[in-house]
Structures are given as C-alpha cells and as structure tokens.
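User: Hello! My lab partner asked me to get a predicted holo structure for this protein. The small molecule is NDP, SMILES included with the sequence. Please write out the structure tokens.
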Amino acid sequence: MKIALVGITGYAGMQLYQLLQNHPNVTQINIYQHDLSQKTPLWQVNNRLDHQHLAMALPYDSQQIMADNDVLFLATSAGIATQLAQPFLDQDFPVIDLSGDFRLKEPETYQKWYHKTGPTSQNLAHSYYGLADLNQNHQQHYIANPGCYATATLLGLAPLVQADLIYPDSIIVDAKSGLSGAGKSLSTSSHYLRANENMQVYKANQHQHIPEILAQLQAWNPTIPHLQFMTSLIPIDRGIMASIYTKVKPGIGQADIQQAYQKQYQAAPFINLLDEDLPDIKSVVGSNNCNIGLAFNEKTGYLLTVSVIDNMLKGAAGQAIQNMNQFFHLNDTSGLPLHPNTF
Ligand SMILES: NC(=O)C1=CN([C@@H]2O[C@H](COP(=O)(O)OP(=O)(O)OC[C@H]3O[C@@H](n4cnc5c(N)ncnc54)[C@H](OP(=O)(O)O)[C@@H]3O)[C@@H](O)[C@H]2O)C=CC1
Ligand SMILES: CC(=O)N[C@@H](CCC(=O)OP(=O)(O)O)C(=O)O
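Assistant: Hello! Below are the structure tokens for the protein in complex with NDP.
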C-alpha cells in the first residue's frame, strides 16, 4: 500500500511516519511538504531525522498525491484540512485527517469552538467520526480522527451511556495531558519554567473537544443533555488520564457496571479493563491501548472511571493507523504497538 503523509514536521506526523515505516502492509511512504518547490532530502525538512535518512520530501500537489498513493494522512494544524480537502472529496479519495476540522457536523459549531472558519456542511456530510474501537463498518472515504481527550473520555463513558446506567446530566470529566498534546509550537503555558513541576488548568469550559464528545454521547444516548469537562496540563511528555465521575442510577451495582464494560469491550484488542485496579499513564505510553479502571462508591452512588491513553498513539497517530487498517480491511492491530514502553 502506498501512503501519502502531510505534516511530518509536527509531532503527530512524525509519530505516524514511525508507525508507517513498521507497518507490514505499507510498501511506500510519500511525504508532501507545503513549503517546498522541489524534491528535498527529508532530514533537511525534519531535523529530528539523521543525515543518513535517505527518504525525500516532495512539494505538495493534490493531483500527484491521488495519482501515486492509496490514502492520504493529514497531520496538520487546525484549519489546514479545511483548505486542502476539496480535490480529495471531489474524487472520493481516502483521507484520514488528524485535525479537528471534519469532526463536527455543523460549521457554526466549528467556528464557535475553534474560532476559525471550517468546512461547509456539504463537505462535513462526507466525513465520518473515526472512533476506531467503537465506530466501524462505514462507507465514507473522509475519516475524521477523534481528538485525544475525546478518545480517552468516550472510551471511558461508552458502556455507561450506551447501557443507560447513569443519570444523563451527571457526567464530570477531569482530564490531564502531557505536553506533546499541544503540538510543537511553544506557548506561555508550555514554556519549561511554567510547565515543569507544575499543573495548569486551561480552556475551562471552552475546550474544543467538548462538542465532539457531546455529539458522540448524544448519538449513543439522546438523553445526555451536556457534560462538565475540564483539562489540565501536567509535566510529562506524553499521555492522558481522564478521570470521569458519573452518578449511577438506583438499583445498579458494581457487578452490573463491570458487566457492561466487559460486554462492550470483549472483542476490542486495544482496550484493557482493569476493573478496580486503577490505571496509570505509564501503563499505556508507547502502546495504542486504552486502559480503563473503575471505583464505585456505594455510599454516594458516584462512579469514578479512569481512562488512560498515549495521546500520540491512541489519541492521534495510532488511532489513525487503526482507521486505515479498518478502511482497507486489514487486521485491526497491524503495525500498532500493543505493549507500553515501561512497566
Ligand atoms: N499532538 C497530539 O497529541 C494530537 C494532535 N492532534 C491534531 O493533529 C494535528 C497535528 O498535531 P501536532 O502534530 O501535534 O501539531 P504540530 O503543531 O506539532 O504540527 C502541525 C503540522 O501542520 C503543518 N502545517 C501547518 N500549516 C500548514 C499548511 N498550510 N499546509 C500544510 N501543512 C501545514 C506543520 O508544518 P510546518 O511546521 O512545516 O508549517 C506541521 O507539520 C493538529 O490538528 C492537532 O490538533 C490530534 C490529536 C492529538
Ligand atoms: C495539551 C494540549 O494542549 N492539548 C491540546 C489537544 C490538541 C488536540 O487534540 O486538538 P484538536 O482538537 O485540534 O485535534 C489542547 O488541549 O488543545
């Protein structure tokens, strides 16, 4: 299979490149770079690659991409896929878009949460929300890879929401991310002096993943009215922990909850249910896994679900490869790491 990749100078694009190089079904990776006018050694484009790296980067050209490849990955900043998508949509060429541009169904919602103009509703109608561990068997050629926080949160909530086990208005998510989630551009909050040995709550009630989480929850269970969602930056390279609090409906006990999670994820190769043994971030870093643990307080009726992922893998490049595997009817786990870096 021949792969086109745009965005190798970013964190997610580089992670994708590393995964694709080890994918058993990938025969060629063509890198396209927006600011090149001629073929250029890849190590000159991304200085994280050493000078022995022989691959070349090519100038961006949509027609050439479609002529020479089977699928395109867009690992580009918010707003760029909106500008690049049209020729691929016109020709039904498969695209896996890691940005948030095509995840929402209404242009006004994108404008409100991303503060920029996104795709038209006609174009949005062609995209598919690729939450790979749960949404499958679709026909669309444009796959919107979910956001990192959204992935951890939705995988943690799905069994509760789908089986209607919780009060619909009781969802509170307190999520924390490492710095790679913010991409390569430096900001005041990601400056070493501010981030190191610190924890910062940010985008309170304004995080751009709120609408995509809510849309998916409501697709599963229309009674969910809203959710309370908070994000914090913690001084680690990679990883997300979503601590999800929900109030369980009367008559539902620990065994019912565990059963719902087991039923949901019995055939999901990347989801590990730890039940009452709560997961930590290092248990998934380096893998495409999502580890989920539960703590039910029978006195208060509140359930804590802890969902952890590696934001660069399950939260970005790993899930994107999983979406490619599903689209081309390959094994779900092909080319994807199932074991974390550390134990
Ligand atoms: N990091 C993460 O954990 C996650 C990221 N995402 C999303 O994935 C996307 C990539 O993320 P990340 O790698 O972290 O971001 P980075 O900021 O690290 O990289 C952004 C990439 O977009 C490229 N780019 C910018 N402008 C253009 C343009 N006009 N045409 C083509 N390419 C362009 C940049 O190229 P150059 O620098 O050469 O201009 C760079 O390669 C983002 O939309 C992000 O929100 C999603 C889930 C998780
Ligand atoms: C730590 C950190 O800053 N994380 C980013 C997540 C980036 C992301 O996934 O954004 P998209 O929705 O555009 O894909 C954030 O909170 O905005």
